[in-house]
Each structure stands twice: as C-alpha cells, then as structure tokens.
C-alpha cells in the first residue's frame, strides 16, 4: 500500500489548487449568501475555458482525458474548496449520451455541455413514483414525428436555472412497468412546460414541480429505443453512485464543527472540554477517516481497471448518515442558539448551522433513500432472499 | 496511489485462510475451553513453521521481515476462525517489546525463540487503577545490588501460567501516572516471589494476575533504557493493536456470514426470516460496520508500514471503530439467530464473547477516542482564547 501520488500528479494538484484559488467565486468558498445560476455559470465557464469542465469524459468528446488519479485529485480539491457540484449535463446526461446516443444526438448536445452553454436538470421522480421509480406515470404518446407528453415530475433540482431536461416517460401503459418506459431530452423552454418552486424546510427553493401539458417532443429527442428507457435510466444513476470523493465533500462541515466545539462557551469553559462532546467529536473524525479510507479502496479498484467491490455500495449510505450525526452534534453544541434560524441572528447561529441541520435531512432521502440503500446491500451484496 | 494488496499479500491471505480452515474449527475452539492451556501447543508449532510468528521481525532474528499490511492478512484469517493461539499477545506484542526495546544481545537471545515458537513470552503491563494507561505503573522497581527489587501487581496477563518469560513494567522513578520512569524487565516465570493467579474470562482464553513480592531482577533483566519503557510499550501495543483489529474484522465478518446463512435457513410465517425487511436492514448495518471497520484497519496498517505522522492516531481510530463494530455485529448476530443464539450449544455466542474480550484489550473505544483527540490535537489546551464565531 502506498498513498502517495506521483510527482507529476502532485504537480497537477498544485496546478488545480492555484486554478481554484484564482477562479472559484467567493460565495462558494464561504457558503454564505444566495447562490444563483450566475455564480454556478461563472465557475463552469471558467472551467470550460480551461478545458477542465468534463473531467471524466474521453478527449474526443471534449473531455480532459485525465487519468483516474487526476480526476480524483481534481474532484477532492474542488470539494474541499467548496466548489458546487458539476451540472447534471456533465455528470449524468453527457456520459449517458456518449454511451447510448446517436451521432446526431451527440453532436447536438455534447458540445454545449462542454462549453457550459446549456445546463441540465433531471425529470425522474413523480408524486407517486419516488423510491418505486418504475411506477412513473408521465405519458408520452407518439403523434407523427413528435411525442405528446402529459403529466408531472417533482423534485426537479434547479429547474429554474436549467436550459434542458432529461426525463423518463411511459410510452406503453400495457407492458410490465419497467418495460413501457422511454428516455427523452427536451428544452425547458418547450411550450407546455411549467415549473413551480417547492419551498423546502430550509425556506430555500432549489426543487421544483415540473408540469408537462401537451408538450411536443420531436422523435429524434428519444435516447435509445422506444420502451428501452429503464435500462438507460438506471445506467445513468450508476454514474451518480460512483462517488469516491464522498469523504472530501463532508470535510468542510467537520472542520467547522470542530471549530464550533472549540469556541462555544460551555459551563464556564468551552464545549470541547466536555468529555461527552469530545467523545462524539472524536468519533465523527474517526468515522470520516474511515470513509476516506473506504474511498481509497474504491479508487484503487478503479485505478487497477477493476469494477469497484461491493463495499462501494456504502459510500452514499454511510456518508449521508455521518453528515447528519455531524449536524446533530453541532445543534447540541449550539444549545439554546440551535433554535435560531436566519437574519438577524446569523452570527449567533454560527452562520446558518440550524439551517444546515435541517437541510441535512435531505441527504438520507435523495438519490435513493437509506432504506432503499439497505435493501440493495442486503439483497444484492449479502444475497438475502427477496420478500 | 495504491490502497490495495499485492499478489504476494493475496497469497499470504489465502494460505492463512486455508491453514485455519484445515487445522481449526469452532468445534476445536469449543473443546479448548476445557483445556488447561486453552490452546494447542502442537498447532502453535505448526503456525511457527509457517513463519507467521516472526512475520514482522527481521531475518537476522529468525523472522521473515514482512510489514503490518502483510500481517493483517494473516491475523484476519485467525480472527475468522476465532483461533485461541496467542499470535498477537505473545509474538506480536511481547515480541515487539523485545524488538523495539531490547539491546542487541537481548534481541539475539530472545527473538529467534519467539519466531520458531520455542519461547513463549507474555507482557505484564496493565494495572487495575490505570485501566488502559501504560504509563500508570504503581509496581515498583527499587535498585539493589546492581539489580532491582520488584513489588506490585499486574492484571489480565495473557497465558501467564504457561509463558516461559514475562516482560514486566515497573516504576523506577517518578509517580504513578508519569510517562517517564517506567522500565521493562524480563524475568523467568519461575522466578521466586512471582506468583501467577488465574482468573476466569468471558472467552475462556487464559488470563492471570501476577503479583510480585520482593522479586529480584538482575542487572541484565532490564530491557531497554532505565525509565524509558513507556515509549516502547506504546509502540509495541500499537503494532499489536493493528493485528488485533484485523483479527476482529475477520471475526465480525464471519459472524455476519453465519447470521445471513441462518436467515436463509430459518423459516417462520412460511418464509425464510431473511426475507423480512427488519432483518435485511439489520444485516445491511452489520455489513456497513464490517466494511468501515476494515477500511480504518487497513489505513492503520498502512500508516504503520509507511511510518506516517498520523500512525498513532490511525491505530486509535481503527481500534475505536473495530471495538464498537465487533460488539454491535456480534450482538446483532445473536439477535438474528433468535432463541438458538442464546444457547451454549450454538456457536454464534463465541463471536460475542471474543468481541467483549477484544474490546477491552489494548484499550476500549472510549479510551482510543480520547487518545485520538490528543494525537490529532483536536482539543487544544484550555487556555485558548475566545474565538468569535466566524464564517
């Protein structure tokens, strides 16, 4: 075992750090203030200009052609600095188009993703299709060289800031539920698409309901065969789940929590002097260390050209619950200040920790709830009988 | 960047796994509960023939010069079979006290016997009032005639009844919890004034209390520098702790495997109990515990081999994680077995009992969390100035 990167890789890390220092908008560094499309776009365009936006794509499609080690270094450094996650065009639909798209589709969509000219959102979940995604009911009925789409999507992140949407729709209502689904892309400015913000428990509104009323989607916007969308849709989620940098994305919160434990007054001393607080804080550090080591294991498999082992299925489950244990301890440290919320109490509330704690509830729900993750682990990894 | 094993290491793992499967079973472990020694001397010699007792010691002392990433491949398999032979307490722990603290003469005299299995060493370092603190030594070593007179009591000493030699920490200067002034002495078990009193332990491995009454230790009995034993003990215990963590991971993985296997076989309400989501989620949590414990243990072994700055913290992180995880997994394994899991007749309780014993060996989770905090500097001295909340 050897955790060292090569000299060339370390030089690359320095280059990445310098680039982030110079180009990452301040708002992401502090995590404060109202982030808009403009902020994200600024960052994405700067990455695009450098040719670094699509880190994991092959070179021929405008990707970097970086080795996996370099991709990992870039992703870790960006996470630690607080950079926003890449747009779904880069992380999800791009790789899916590269795998399943026709030449014409690749030519139409990929260059605009590479240049950060079109941002994407995802239309998967519906009010009655959450964990049971295959139960989706959005209908697409062919009418000449178009499909006519009717129905509703929900939890569409950044729908208001996106140019394009990829979505799953039912094209055969009589087939077995997984076998009547097709995969589409369309412009968010298509006539008949309306969005309505969903106010979250944090008062923010990153999620939207997206309504389709007689939206006409050209047949050439279907990715893959008709009724073959389930396979593509699941494959796309696999791109989402290979998350080797999970530990890095929680590091900033743990650092802040540690600082809070040191500076919060507590019975005449500081919170960290309390053995119960100290034990919990140490435990969280130990858990994040273990998650980082788990990431090294997954990364090593990838670097060796192997499929990640079954242990890679626990990154999301463990990371999200660890993050909630962090926000819980922060709330206990804040004590009476834990009931504060927003202006004018921001400083006393550690600049938004109570909101972070409320917001952390989402982590065990999105991208497959913890309950679904446990089903997957027990059935697919441990081979327990399906009930 | 490589956080995986080499082909050689995979082969070591495989030969250890084959050896344990061929030579041992929980039936054997069950039978050894009633044995005077608690483990098999015959098997011990065959383990020695594999070279595993000297795995981490240099060839010049009869070892094979491997690292801790190699050793964990062996220890994990020993744990999977709940082997009672004292690979960790005798070879890795006591062997390292000699290797790290002894002078050339002592190393040459003692280590070859450790490696070939002919010399059984044990370490007597812990005392009841100090719990897990190796610096807390009330046993005294008073100079006398160029040697020392030892008085005091040591607790939870492994295999004291059958060890050939006992390594004993005693205070030669300072007061009870000082890290300076701790010295290590090597004595024959048969030394007059040294009394071994067996105790009964949960997993039936043999532990004893050693009392020292005016025990005479000659000048050559001092192992390492006078008063400089504490650092040696900490380092030796760290190395043994990594091996112990590997053993714990192997054992918890086996407990999970058995619980899942049982959930396929046991039918209630007309279906295998493993098809119930309540048990699936319990098993998924056990799996998460095993893999996270394994990850932290790998990191600690690597950190020792690479002599990383964070090695000591990494060892404490691994032990804290493995202690909690092994206890949780072994308790859940009993629960998944239902009533039969509560019987002595069934084997699953052996894992819980090993977890209880392993938890308090070399420090429990709470002790190691506190040690991690110190090593990482998470809690700077109380004099720190008030820092205003910042973004």
Question: What this model shows, in words?
Answer:
The complex is a heterodimer of chains A (387) and B (391). Chain A is α+β, with helices and mostly antiparallel strands. Chain A has helices spanning 7-23, 26-30, 37-50, 68-81, 88-100, 103-114, 229-241, 246-263, 275-303, 315-334, 353-360, 370-381; strands spanning 120-123, 139-143, 146-153, 164-170, 181-187, 193-198, 207-218, 222-223, 265-266, 269-270. Chain A has a four-stranded mixed sheet with strand order 1-4-5-8. Chain A has a four-stranded antiparallel sheet with strand order 2-3-7-6, with no helix packed on it. In chain A, a hairpin with an 8-residue loop joins strand 6 and strand 7. The two termini of chain A are 41 Å apart. With 391 residues, chain B is an alpha+beta fold. In chain B, the strands form three sheets. Chain B has a four-stranded mixed sheet with strand order 1-4-5-8. Chain B has a four-stranded antiparallel sheet with strand order 2-3-7-6, with no helix packed on it. In chain B, a hairpin with a 7-residue loop joins strand 6 and strand 7 (207-217). Chain B is globular and about 80 Å long. Chain B starts with 6 loop residues before the first helix and ends in a 15-residue tail after the last helix. The interface between A and B is large, with 64 and 57 residues.
Short description:
The complex is a heterodimer of chains A (387) and B (391). By secondary structure, chain A is an alpha+beta fold. In chain A, 45% of the residues lie in helices and 14% in strands.
């Amino acid at each position: 075992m050897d955790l060292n990167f090569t000299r060339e890789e370390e030089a690359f890390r320095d280059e990445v750090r310098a680039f982030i220092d110079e180009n990452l908008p301040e708002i992401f560094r502090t995590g404060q203030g109202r982030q808009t499309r403009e902020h994200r776009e600024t960052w994405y365009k700067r990455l695009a200009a450098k040719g670094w936006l699509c880190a994991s794509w092959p070179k021929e499609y405008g990707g970097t052609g970086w080795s996996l080690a370099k991709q990992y270094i870039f992703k870790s450094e960006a996470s630690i600095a607080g950079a926003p996650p890449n747009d779904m065009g880069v992380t999800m639909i791009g790789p899916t188009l590269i795998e399943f798209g026709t030449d014409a589709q690749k030519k139409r969509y990929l260059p605009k993703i590479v240049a950060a000219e079109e941002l994407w959102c995802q239309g998967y979940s519906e009010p009655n299709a959450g964990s049971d995604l295959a139960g989706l009911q959005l209908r697409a009925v062919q009418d000449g060289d178009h499909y006519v789409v009717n129905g509703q999507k929900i939890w569409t992140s950044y729908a208001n800031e996106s140019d394009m949407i990829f979505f799953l729709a039912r094209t055969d209502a009589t087939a077995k539920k997984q076998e009547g689904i097709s995969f589409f892309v369309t412009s968010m400015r298509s006539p008949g698409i309306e969005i309505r913000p969903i106010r979250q428990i944090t008062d923010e509104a990153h999620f939207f309901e997206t309504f389709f009323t007689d939206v006409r989607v050209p047949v050439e916007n279907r990715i893959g065969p008709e009724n073959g969308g389930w396979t593509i849709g699941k494959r796309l989620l696999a791109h989402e789940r290979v998350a080797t940098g999970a530990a890095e994305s929680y590091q900033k919160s743990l650092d802040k929590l540690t600082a809070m434990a040191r500076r919060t007054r507590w019975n005449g001393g500081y919170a960290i002097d309390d053995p119960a607080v100290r034990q919990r804080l140490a435990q969280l550090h130990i858990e994040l260390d273990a998650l980082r080591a788990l990431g090294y294991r997954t990364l090593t498999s990838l670097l060796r050209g192997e499929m990640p082992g079954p242990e890679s299925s626990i990154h999301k489950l463990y990371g999200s619950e660890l993050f909630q244990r962090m926000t819980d301890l922060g709330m206990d440290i804040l004590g009476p200040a834990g009931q504060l919320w927003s202006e004018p109490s921001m400083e006393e509330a550690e600049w938004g920790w109570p909101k972070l704690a409320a917001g952390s509830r989402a982590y065990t729900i999105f991208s497959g709830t913890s309950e679904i993750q446990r089903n997957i682990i027990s059935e697919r990894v441990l081979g327990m009988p399906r009930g | 960047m490589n956080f995986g094993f080499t082909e050689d290491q995979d082969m070591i793992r495989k030969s250890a796994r084959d050896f344990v499967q061929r030579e041992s079973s929980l039936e054997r472990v069950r039978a050894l509960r009633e044995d005077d020694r608690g483990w098999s001397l015959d098997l011990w010699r065959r383990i020695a023939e594999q070279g595993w007792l000297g795995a981490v010691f240099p060839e010049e002392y009869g070892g094979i010069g491997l690292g801790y990433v190699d050793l964990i491949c062996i220890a994990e398999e020993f744990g999977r079979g709940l082997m009672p032979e004292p690979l960790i307490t005798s070879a890795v722990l006591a062997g390292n006290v000699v290797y790290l603290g002894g002078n050339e003469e002592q190393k040459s005299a003692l280590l070859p016997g450790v490696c070939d299995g002919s010399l059984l060493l044990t370490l007597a370092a812990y005392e009841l009032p100090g719990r897990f603190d190796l610096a807390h030594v009330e046993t005294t070593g008073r100079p006398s005639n160029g040697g020392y007179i030892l008085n005091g009591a040591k607790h939870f000493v492994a295999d004291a009844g059958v060890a050939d030699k006992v390594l004993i920490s005693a205070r030669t200067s300072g007061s009870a919890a000082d890290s300076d002034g701790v010295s290590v002495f090597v004595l024959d078990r048969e030394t007059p004034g040294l009394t071994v009193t067996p105790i009964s332990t949960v997993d039936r491995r043999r532990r004893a209390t050693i009392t020292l009454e005016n025990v005479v230790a000659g000048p050559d009995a001092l192992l390492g520098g006078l008063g400089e034993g504490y650092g040696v003990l900490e380092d030796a215990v760290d190395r043994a702790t990594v091996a112990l963590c590997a053993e714990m991971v192997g054992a918890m993985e086996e407990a999970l495997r058995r619980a899942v296997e049982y959930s396929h076989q046991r039918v209630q309400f007309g279906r295998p109990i493993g098809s119930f989501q309540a048990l699936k989620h319990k098993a998924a949590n056990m799996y998460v515990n095993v893999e996270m414990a394994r990850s932290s243990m790998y990191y600690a072994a690597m950190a020792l081999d690479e002599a990383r700055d964070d090695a000591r913290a990494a060892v404490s992180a691994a032990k804290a994680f493995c202690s909690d995880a092994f206890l949780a997994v072994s308790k859940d394994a009993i629960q998944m077995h239902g009533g039969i899991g509560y019987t002595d007749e069934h084997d699953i309780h052996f894992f819980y009992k090993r977890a209880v014993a392993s938890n308090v060996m070399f420090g429990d989770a709470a002790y190691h969390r506190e040690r991690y905090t110190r090593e990482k500097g998470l809690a700077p001295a109380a004099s720190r100035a008030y820092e205003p909340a910042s973004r």
